[in-house]
Amino acid sequence: TVLVVDFGAQYAQLIARRVREARVFSEIVPSDMPVAEMLAKNPAAIILSGGPSSVYAENAPSIDRALFEAGVPVFGMCYGFQLMARVLGGTVDNSGAREYGRTDLAVSKAASTLFEGTPSEQVVWMSHGDACSAAPEGFEVTASTDVVPVAAFENDERKLFGVQYHPEVMHSTHGQQVLEHFLYRGAGITPNWTMTNVVDEQLALIREQVGTKRAICGLSGGVDSAVAAALVQKAIGAQLTCVYVDHGLMRKGETEQVEKDFVAATGIQLKVVDASERFLSALAGVSDPEQKRKIIGREFIRVFEQAQAEIVAEAGADGEDVAFLVQGTLYPDVVESGGGTGTANIKSHHNVGGLPDDIEFELIEPLRKLFKDEVRMVGQELGLPDEIIQRQPFPGPGLGIRIVGEVTRDRLDLLREADAIARAELTAAGLDREIWQCPVVLLADVHSVGVQGDGRTYGHPIVLRPVSSEDAMTADWSRLPYDVLGRISTRITNEVSDVNRVVLDITSKPPGTIEWE
Ligand code: XMP
Asked: In sequence order, which residues have a C-beta less than 8 Å from that of residue 516 and are 6 or more positions away?
């Protein structure tokens, strides 16, 4: 394992993904984890991420010097680089030498561990206010820019390396190469982490965890739960029953499609539970997003408990037998819900933060350490078809978090129609693979004046939120062709009653999240 020490912002996740792209397993740990605990994980290397603080600020996160004295190779990036410089006796100052964005880096030592084989001039992405003006003793400066004399340094003997810039971002042209040089050459790691290993490891773990008991799996129709279910089915076969909860918050035709595609691909027996009545009454009168998420999470579990009872009764076994609940929780869900990294809670994902305290199942979460693109690779490895693996993400709470305001049956019907039109037009235009997903949102609490037919209308706006993304952690709004947008707008305002306006969300993430709630 390579540990990525998280100094804030979301650089750590991107770094962790880049390390995995180099076929080395990585894990994110919070910067306040004691060094002894980090070392107890026996890391092959440690990376110190960037972060928003100044090393001088009061309460700025720091790191114990012991980290650099344990013989474990360390790579500091941006804030991590400055911290390393400061802790080891170099000079970091606030001289006004700041750089943001594209910067030209001049490599002064071509034969360095990090830069070998990369050009002597390369474009990197910087974001810093403080700068290192003198490297610690024993370190060699390997690169500089017009503004900062020490933009990279290394101490080969102690296996300590650092760069002022962000090698993990795409705009740093040789960033991945530099990172791989650190992993392979600096730390001597052999890249051998593959999805085949993940599958084998998980199969063994699941079999050991479940033994002869039985598990149920909530299938949402999304990639994550489908891959989790297929993985668990491969491990324990008929001991698994899948339950599909129709919470009434699904898109048009979705339930039928899931039944058809998934059963055809896996042969798993699927129990479909119609629970829309129950979800809608629990949601009545609620407009607060966090509350909606909590309610939906709670009802999910309740429905599973009922399904469990029924499955047990049908099987004629005794109730203790069905002890496990499989969930398709992903690494970003875990990190964003504040699980294990100390980062801020941004939203309660219904399958993590939204779980009630009195849950009676033991969880099986075989994808808990994986990013989305890795889950797709696992799906491929398991032989799932593209219709399942390449599906665009859809949130567990469904349309419930795409109605801004109270969720009612009428509003759901309206949103379902608008969403079906948008999806049909995007598919017809061949844009499904280009966009990551396109939430369609009903602003139910907003009215706007329109003129339709001969009269004044007072209807609701529909928001289109097409985004491109690599992992949903960051996203940009998709520049869709105007004629496609035009067709969607005309059709929605013509065909969906009570909607007299269609608007386009042109916000990236951050600052906006992908979903509106
Ligand atoms: P946000 O809105 O946080 O969404 O930028 C990031 C990605 O996660 C999906 N999403 C969810 N998925 N349960 C899920 O399974 C949830 O509670 C949930 N909330 C958001 C969202 O569609 C996007 O792909």
From this structure: 401, 402, 404, 439, 441, 463, 465
